[in-house]
Model the fold of this input.
Amino acid sequence: MSKSSVVSGKVIPLFLNSRTPQNGIVQEVLNYWESLRHGRLVPKRSEIDPRALQRSLNYTFILEAHAPDNIRFRLVGSRLCDCMGIEMRGMPAYAMMQMDARNRYNQMLQTALARPEILDLQLSPTARMVLLPMAGEDNIVSRFLGCVNVDSHHADFPTRFDIRSVAKTRIIAAKSIGPKFLELAESQKPFTPDRKKATFGKPPFLRIVK
Done:
């Protein structure tokens, strides 16, 4: 993953800017998503285990693209439904936004799937949304793991969000950027496995000696 965000044409280190995930639900979701990648572009939807997101589950959702312009909620945390005042499952992704922000939001989602990138939105009423692309079993990037860090007891809820600002982070599979780093690095010694460690050869067996 490219560790920078594009904000108003500027490139800023992802983990040093003001949108850096702090301790809390956003950090938990982001760390979990990153742990599932294993050097790939994005993880698969089937790899998500709700038990790993206990703290953030009520504020987490999954979006699924049935078509580029038809992205809907597949799963939604109960606290987010409280913020919206309705059951969001099956609703269009833009249903969480105010009317004048829906086209912009929908376009951002389509772009983030076509050219995988993390979306980090600052919303009004005060909230933060992070959207993390995922693939289906066909390896097509067609889903998002999302999280909204919001106070569901805020006096303005239920309501719809407006977009205050957006930070985008382009995702690059670890394997694809390896050679670029090697070209600039010092000469590397070939990796030699520890011969003392167990190997995955034939299974052990007992020999009977007569």
